[in-house]
C-alpha cells in the first residue's frame, strides 16, 4: 500500500495500480495520529474509512499537485536527520573525498565498524552509525518542485536514499508511518574540503516522495538515479538499498536515533534518511541550474524529480536589540 498527499488537502491510497481518495481524510499526518490514538494500523484505519473516487496519480504529479507525503502542521516540530556510511560500497566514495585509497581514514574506520557490528542479534545493541542533522520541516521541498541551493554553496548534488517517517505518540512511543524515496541534497565540495565540514554540507533542503510505502521494507531494493539537462540524460547509475545491501540493520539505525529522549517528544515528526553509495559527484559531475534530478525505484512507485535552482544571496547581518 502506498499513500500520497495532495497539496490542497486529501490523501490518496494506491493498491497495486488502483489509486483512490481516502474518505474524510485531509492529511497523512492526521491519519497517522488517529491510527495511533485508536490503536490501529494505517491499513486498518483506511479500511474503516473506505476509499472513494479513483484518481490518476501520475497526472496529479505532472500538474504539481502532490506534496511531501507527510508534513507536520508546524515545521519546527519536524526533524530532518540521517545516517551515512551505511551501504556496502558507500565508504569508497567517501574515502575518495578525504584521502587516498591507501589511507585508513575515519570514514573507512566507521564503515568497517558497521560491517562488523551494525547488524546485532535480537536483544543486542550494535555499533552506532555516523549521524547528521539536516534541518527542520522548513527544508522539505515537495516532489516536482525545485531544490534551492543557497548562494554561498560550492555545489548542489543529489543523494538517492530511502527515508523513514516516524511520528511520536502521546506516551513517547515511536511509530513508523512508512518509507519514501529521498533526495538528500548536499554540498559535496564543501564536504570534500574537510570531513569536519560534513555538518555544513548537510544543511540544505531535501525532497521526499511522491509516494509513501506503508509496511515493511523489502530486504533488496533496486533503483536508478539520473540527471537530465535540457531533457537529455547527463548522467545515470543504478543503486541498491535495503538491508541485504547495507552494513547496518534498520533496527540498529532506528535505535541509535531514538535512544535520545530529545527525539521522543509527543507529536514530533522525524524524517530519517538511511544513506547511499551512489553519487554523481563521484563521477565528476557538476549539476547546473535547471538540471533535473530523478530518483526511481519500482518499490516506491512514481519517481522523485526535482530541478536544481540557485538562490539569491541573503543579508545575514545580525541586528542588536
Question: What's this, in brief?
Answer:
The protein has 321 residues and is an alpha+beta fold.
Description:
- The chain is an alpha+beta fold and 321 residues long.
- Helices cover 20% and strands 31% of the residues.
- The protein contains eight helices and 18 strands.
- It has helices at 28-37, 42-49, 57-62, 90-98, 106-117, 188-193, 198-202, 250-258, and strands at residues 2-6, 11-15, 18-22, 51-54, 66-67, 78-84, 130-136, 140-141, 147-149, 160-168, 174-183, 206-208, 212-213, 221-229, 232-241, 269-273, 292-296, 304-310.
- The strands form three sheets. Strands 7-6-16-10-11-12-8 form a seven-stranded mixed beta sheet. Strands 1, 2, 3, 4, 5 and 13 form a six-stranded antiparallel beta sheet that branches. Strands 9-18-17-14-15 form a five-stranded mixed beta sheet, with no helix packed on it.
- α1 (28-37) crosses α2 (42-49).
- The longest helix is centred in the middle third of the chain and has 12 residues, at 106-117.
- The protein is globular and about 55 Å long.
- The model has no long low-confidence stretch (mean pLDDT 95).
